[in-house]
Amino acid sequence: MKLKITSPMAAKIRADLRKAIALPGVDERLAIVYARFASEVTQTVVVAADYAMLPDNAYVAGPDAANFDVRWLMQMAQGADRRNCGLLLTHLHEHKGRPWFSPADLWTVREVLYSLYRASPRFPQGALLFSSDAAVALIASAGGFVAVRDVSIVP
Asked: CA Rg, the chain, in Å?
């Protein structure tokens, strides 16, 4: 499985994720990336189509760096479905090199994001994680999640 995102979109997402957030108990920003399969037949290449930052009212109090209202995510997923897209919950680990998902991230992927796939398996669903100079993703499939260890950032 491959995931492709344009360089301008990746740069804009990183810049938006780096912006300070003035909410108590929230240490990192989140975004959603709208994504499509390049081919509905093979479903081996995912293409990032657009993105949106989580609004302040989508964050909730909780134990992790960024806790969000799952009901808000489900509403966004319904809107994505109407756009013929899936959702990739996206955030940034501010370091160089290939990032990887924390235990809290992996719990969210398994327990929350897989439900998006079960509800709408014809679109890519999962998580996208940026570092300062790389990105990785987990894309849901019938057998669990497929790791995309080198996201292609294209011109």
From this structure: 14
- Give the dihedral sign, CA 51/53/139/129: positive
Kindly report the CATH number assigned to the domain that includes residue 47.
Answer: 3.40.140.10
Which domain covers residue 114, as residue numbers? Answer: 2-154
Tens of pLDDT, residue by residue over 47-58, are 999 999 999 888
Q: Are 86 and 80 in contact (CB under 8 A)?
A: yes
List the beta strands (DSSP E) in 44-122. Answer: 45-53, 86-92
Q: Both tokens of residue 49?
A: 């189509």
pLDDT, tens digit, 9 for 90 and up, residues 47-88: 999 999 999 888 887 877 778 888 899 999 999 999 999 999
Q: What is the count of structural domains for the chain?
A: 1
User: Residue 105 burial by CB count (10 A; 0-12/13-18/19+): exposed, middle or buried?
Assistant: buried
Q: Could you tell me where the beta strands, DSSP code E, fall in the chain?
A: 2-6, 31-37, 45-53, 86-92, 126-130, 135-141, 144-148, 152-154
At a CB cut-off of 8 Å and minimum separation 6, what does 11 contact? none
